[in-house]
Specification:
By secondary structure, this protein is α+β, with helices and mostly antiparallel strands. The protein has 13 helices and 20 strands. The strands form four sheets. Strands 5, 6, 11, 12, 13, 14, 18, 19 and 20 form a nine-stranded antiparallel β-sheet that branches. A five-stranded antiparallel β-sheet has the order 7-10-15-16-17, with helices on one face.
Length: 412
């Protein structure tokens, strides 16, 4: 049986070669929590061995984050360091690859004023708009992975000791990212091929609408004309293949920002900025959220929806079978990277321009004219379950089953 050290080596190699697919002479930027230091060192070594020119690491510490939210003056959350924003933009313009290690404590800010969280989320999104837009247009290779942290692991496995919870979460991560397989990189090649077949099938259909039905959900979503489904590996504007999410089980495309009607209910908690939102419903009319409820995190949800005009419209629709390995773990991860790959989901806010034909080369005005949503946010929330049915409506009005009882209604 492989040791933890050996698995971490394989995980680092997967992140470098399959995740961001680092190229000779390229810079790699890693955003990571302090708890990921051991893995980050291995990632840096693998990147340099692959020919990377620089590996820059941006460390973050949740204890310091909490201290700031509790004790800094209000005006601190309306400011973002210009040098940091300009630095990220410059790195993107110079062709760097970006790897984020995303392992938030779901309860970190549960006793912090939601207004502070919303203010800084908007401030940072505005400051980093150009950098984030570059990544969403696949100008650069980017990827997101996770590592266990004590707070996150204990949230998932509260009955275990801290170390037992961390060990258990590592086992789960290695399983769903295919690191436990003899050759994870080859396993991901095969997984990407399976997702590519589904993408090809859906792109050939060019459905006009998707109709969702489940307990608490009755929703019709119009898709933009010439929409493009994606899933698994992506291709950067420079022609380099990379995997934005490890793990991933989704295929996704773009809704028309004004073409969503009905009500949808979440099926998993949403961790937004260290606060949980759960038991919520959103009611749409002509694309916009006009009513909402929440059993937990109502104020946080309100601030999220009030970020800007686009925050009340959808930017993504994603299909994930209930049989996905992450769903079959029967765990709630309180981490969007994992939970979104356990269930069908939607995203409030900005759409990926790559989800419409030639979208990456369109101006902001051209995208808007075609029904593409724009916003400072992009927040996925989970709506899938074993009770979800989805139909596709073709351009000639024919209604076809896509999902039945949470899973694909056809085989390829």
């Amino acid at each position: 049986m492989a040791t933890l050290e050996q698995k971490l080596d394989k995980y680092a190699a997967l992140a470098v070669h399959t995740g961001v697919n680092i190229q000779p002479g390229q810079t790699l930027v890693v955003n990571a929590p302090l708890e990921a230091a051991v893995l980050v060192r291995k990632i840096a070594k693998k990147a340099y061995e692959a020919g990377a020119k620089h590996v820059y690491v941006e460390w973050n510490d949740e204890d310091l984050t909490y201290i700031k939210y509790k004790h800094a003056p209000d005006e601190a959350f309306s400011e973002y360091p210009l040098w940091r924003a300009q630095g990220m933009e410059q790195l993107a313009q110079e062709g760097a690859a970006f790897l984020s290690i995303y392992s938030p404590n779901p309860d970190l800010l549960k006793d912090v004023d939601p207004k502070r969280i919303a203010t800084f989320a908007k401030t940072s999104s505005e400051a980093l708009r150009n950098y984030r837009s570059a990544l969403m247009a696949d100008q650069n290779c980017w990827s997101i992975i996770s590592v266990p942290t004590p707070a996150w692991a204990k949230k998932i496995f509260p009955h275990l000791s801290e170390q037992e919870a961390i060990d258990k979460l590592w086992d789960v991560i290695f399983t769903v990212t295919r690191v436990h397989e003899e050759d994870p990189i080859q396993a991901w090649e095969e997984h990407n091929e399976r997702l590519a077949k589904m993408v090809e099938h859906l792109n050939g259909k060019q459905y006009k609408q998707l109709i969702y039905e489940a307990p608490g959900t009755n929703l019709t979503i119009e898709l933009v004309e010439n929409h493009v489904w994606h899933g698994g590996a992506a291709i950067s504007q420079g022609g380099v293949r990379f995997n934005p999410n490890i793990p991933t089980e989704e295929v996704f495309t773009m809704p028309h920002k004004d073409g969503v009607n009905g009500t949808v209910r979440n099926t998993k908690p949403l961790n937004y900025g260290g606060n949980l939102i759960d038991g919520f419903t959103l009611t749409f009319k002509d694309g916009k959220v006009v009513e909402f409820t929440a059993e937990t995190g109502y104020e946080t949800l309100k601030h999220l929806l009030d970020t800007d005009e686009g925050a009340r419209h959808l930017g993504e629709v994603a299909l994930v079978p209930h049989r996905s390995p992450i769903s079959q773990s029967n765990l709630i991860f309180y981490n969007t990277l994992f939970d979104e790959n356990a269930a069908c989901h939607l995203a409030l806010g900005k759409a990926y321009p790559t989800n419409i034909e030639d979208g990456a080369t369109m101006t902001k005005e051209e995208l808007a004219a075609r029904g593409v949503n724009d916003s400072l946010i992009h927040e996925d929330f989970m709506i899938g379950s074993a009770e979800l049915n989805i139909d596709g409506v073709t351009k000639d009005g024919k209604r076809e089953p896509i999902f039945r009882n949470g899973n694909w209604a056809f085989t390829l």
